[in-house]
Give the backbone structure.
Amino acid sequence: QRDGAMRILNKANLTDKLDAIVTATDVENHKPSPDTFLQAASLLSLAPSQCVVFEDTELGKQAAHAGGMDCIMVEGDKLVFYPVNNVSN
């Protein structure tokens, strides 16, 4: 939710380093719908193919791929790349 996210980002002094912030509060359809990622791309004036999503859940990866975006998954202590054109992963 936006309030919690903003509290965390402000406490970490990260808000001024971000060009766009989109939370579940800002979209009608949540993961695995790609709405959150598509809205962020739109705010940044980027095409989905120009974006990469960092995620830690399977629903997030599904949402990234549904939006036409590559996904880097945080899996334990590793980062694993899942390209959108290989959606069987």
User: Anything to note?
Assistant: Helices lie at 2-11, 35-43, 58-66. The mean pLDDT is 95. The longest helix spans residues 2-11.
